[in-house]
Design a protein that fits this description.
170 residues, mainly alpha, 2 domains, 7 helices, elongated
Length: 170
Amino acid sequence: MQASRRAWKCREPRAVLRPRRPPPARTIALPQPEPAPHPTLARSRWRWAWLALAYLALGLGIVGIVVPGLPTTPFVLLAAFAAARGSRKLHDWLLAHRTFGPIISAWEREGAISRRAKWTATVLMGVCAVMMFAVAERAALAAFGTATMLVVAVWMWRRPEPGARPPPRT
């Protein structure tokens, strides 16, 4: 018996069987979806050019408010077009603007120009045509400018008015 006790005492103690703990949970960082890019926002290398064009066109549109013969609406529409590709912040500001917002949103939504804007542009183009014939040294230059304004006026009056056609089906 003593031999068996000695053998037992010499043995290394058995490992205590414990239930295995699961390994510590590893957090897996799933990629978060990026916010949807602006549908027409240009790549970064051209954004500065679009942004510069937007500010230049907006500046010319603002000057066109007070300078006869310099149109406002086409420059504001050009500014919105360029801002949509260069700066979401500027584009959103233009859409939220009290004066420019309705013009831009009607154009982007339907390609429409309001009747008031059409009449205003037509009258101002007529005034400019009369002024050109009055001060131009050559009648051909005034005739060319007037013909250009006439083509623009015909194109403008062919554009729909806001809300005139039903919205497209989605």
